[in-house]
């Protein structure tokens, strides 16, 4: 199967899962994580209907976002201060923000470019040492700090679940959904209204994420790998 066919297959299953979960299909955005493939595979996925893509390295983001500027590009990788200038503006949404020094640099670059950069706070819900992100207890204070930056707009939260345990993954996703509701209750009305995204779920566990309330799922191998 080609990336075009696999994308269509995932999209069709997503429609079915949304229906089973009692959710409109339009409430979940499917991000095709293209970090392991080239522009030919991206073009194939576009033929299948893909419009959102995720990259975890600035080099990949530059190459592919510049090749397909009419698509929406998401930065999902580790943020390096020196590469923020390459990410801001190219990425419609940065999923992996959890350090305020990076938020300040994003704000400065966005101001220079005359834009407001949308971001998600990465949260380490599972508590695994191998995963990045804020402790859930730190999220409200961090969000309030972001609210002081004129060129950064907080749109929601992101997390990754432990691999190999779908029940635990569902628990993690439900905890993030609860955390978003708690966060919104602590923010002013304007900022709370903008915090409407939950980025969670990948190739193995996106179904659990949809049932838990994900608005963005990040699917790579199920679209771009013949071995998945």
From TrEMBL:
Cofactor dependency: pyridoxal 5'-phosphate
Keyword RNA-binding in record: no
Superkingdom classification of source: Bacteria
Residue stretches making up the Alanine racemase N-terminal domain: 27-224
Alphabetized InterPro entries for the sequence: Ala_racemase_N, PLP-binding_barrel, PyrdxlP_homeostasis
Molecular function GO labels: pyridoxal phosphate binding
Matching Pfam families: Ala_racemase_N (PF01168)
Alphabetical list of Gene3D superfamilies matching this protein: Alanine racemase
UniProtKB keywords: Pyridoxal phosphate
N6-(pyridoxal phosphate)lysine PTM sites in chain numbering: 35
UniProt keyword Isomerase present: no
Biological role: Pyridoxal 5'-phosphate (PLP)-binding protein, which is involved in PLP homeostasis.
Stated family: Belongs to the pyridoxal phosphate-binding protein YggS/PROSC family.
Name of the protein described by the UniProt record: Pyridoxal phosphate homeostasis protein
